[in-house]
Amino acid sequence: MKHVNIIVKVTNACNLRCKYCYNQDTEYTQDVLSLERLEKFLTLLTMRFDSIEVIWHGGEPLLAGRDYMTRAMEIEEHLRLTTGVKIKNKLQTNGTLIDKWWVAFFKKYDFKPGISFDGLENEKHRQGTDKVLRAISLMQEGGVHFGTLAVVADKEYDLLENYKYFASKKVPTDFSPIFSEGGAKSMSALDAEKYAADMIALFDYWLYDKEGVGVRLFSSYISMILGKACRICSNASCIGAFFSIYPNGEIYNCGRASMTAYPFGNIDNVESVEDLMSSRGFHDLLVGAIARRDKCKASCDLFPYCCGNCSDEAMIEGSLDKAPAFSCYAFKTIFTHIRTKVNKIIEDKVPLTDLNPAMRSIMIDCFSIKGDAQEEKK
Ligand SMILES: C[S@@+](CC[C@H](N)C(=O)[O-])C[C@H]1O[C@@H](n2cnc3c(N)ncnc32)[C@H](O)[C@@H]1O
Ligand code: SF4
Ligand code: SF4
Ligand code: SF4
């Protein structure tokens, strides 16, 4: 099964101006990806892949509007019926524009939205906390599966208190460290040691939080430790597995700002995914990332899990062929800690009922998958 993830930056426009936003250099222009370009892009992908995950992004994707998104769903449905390719949808939104109409839309088309929300610190670098909280209630009432994504923007961000806040609202979350692009370039850097130490302390609390909620980074690392494939792009080889289209039709690896140094082509001028993969941009990005991964592979026993980390973050730190220091340190420290703890739980036969519900379901899921793998071997 050939799977691809696509990030559709459907518009650069946004109704917020978050201080750290990596999109700041786009100046939030109002242009929207035309439906013709969207249809051509999806059509080319169905010619190469059996399964497509569309991640609606921006700017603020809901600003593309109801008619646009309804028409986009018709295009997807037509492609499903005519090609047999599976197409699923996710969406990353600031949450401030979600109303009952959008909740019904997400439900109808089985979207798994992510709401960007910094929890207790939301007004510090973002805005619209009241609207986001209302959106969360509407999504919960409407039975939409969603998660939140908080940015750890500075040393003052209290991970434990914020986790407790998300848990009190029964909302799964993730804590993503700020990276220095766009508005974040002028902000003081986050300390890798502090971020990793706080994540470890949070993990130790989270693990036994019987009423707790999921934290995506923890779930992903635990799944890898228990033998499943990685679910985070930074720890999987993203080149060729991700494509991002911008409102003007330009295609890149993903929507991060420094990736624009490696253009794959414009949808108006390409006729296949192979055309994108034959571009100079694709070639140079791949060669640089392979050089970095080769160094990692030769020197790091965590390479099979980490995979050399994120190319965008390597670029931000100056060189595509060098491991990004912040993410490298954070991965080594947090992953090693979690691995020790998970192995100990298994060794000690800790009852599942003593653990965080998210941990319980990962363990059940992973052990049943291993059962399937055994069957396949026979
Ligand atoms: C650029 S936004 C686009 C989608 C939508 N407007 C939203 O806010 O969810 C995607 C995500 O990137 C995060 N983000 C933006 N700038 C960042 C930075 N410099 N470091 C880390 N995350 C950042 C946002 O908080 C958001 O979760
Ligand atoms: S992070 Fe999202 S909501 Fe905030 S300014 Fe950037 S695009 Fe807009
Ligand atoms: S460059 Fe980084 S953020 Fe972009 S898809 Fe690859 S790993 Fe993810
Ligand atoms: S932990 Fe660091 S050295 Fe190891 S593979 Fe990841 S980026 Fe490379």
Properties at a glance:
single chain, 378 residues, alpha/beta, nine-stranded mixed β-sheet, 14 helices, 46% helix, globular, disordered C terminus, binds S-adenosylmethionine, binds iron/sulfur cluster
Report how far apart the termini are.
21 Å
Percent range for helical residues? 40-55%
Envelope shape: globular
Bound molecules: S-adenosylmethionine, iron/sulfur cluster
Average pLDDT: 95
The total count of helices amounts to 14
**Unreliable residue runs:** 369-378
Protein structure class: alpha/beta
| Content of β-strand | 5-15%
Instruction: Write the H/E string, N to C.
Output: EHEHEHEHHEHEHHEEEHHHHHH
Number of strands: 9
Cα Rg = 21 Å
Main sheet overview: 9 strands, mixed
User: Taking strands numbered 1, 2, ... along the chain, how are they ordered across the largest sheet?
Assistant: 6-5-4-3-2-1-7-8-9
Describe this structure in a few short sentences.
The chain is an alpha/beta fold and 378 residues long. The chain has helices at 35-46, 66-83, 100-108, 122-125, 129-142, 159-168, 192-207, 216-225, 273-277, 280-299, 303-306, 311-316, 325-347, 357-377; strands at 3-11, 51-58, 86-93, 112-116, 147-152, 175-177, 242-245, 250-252, 265-266.
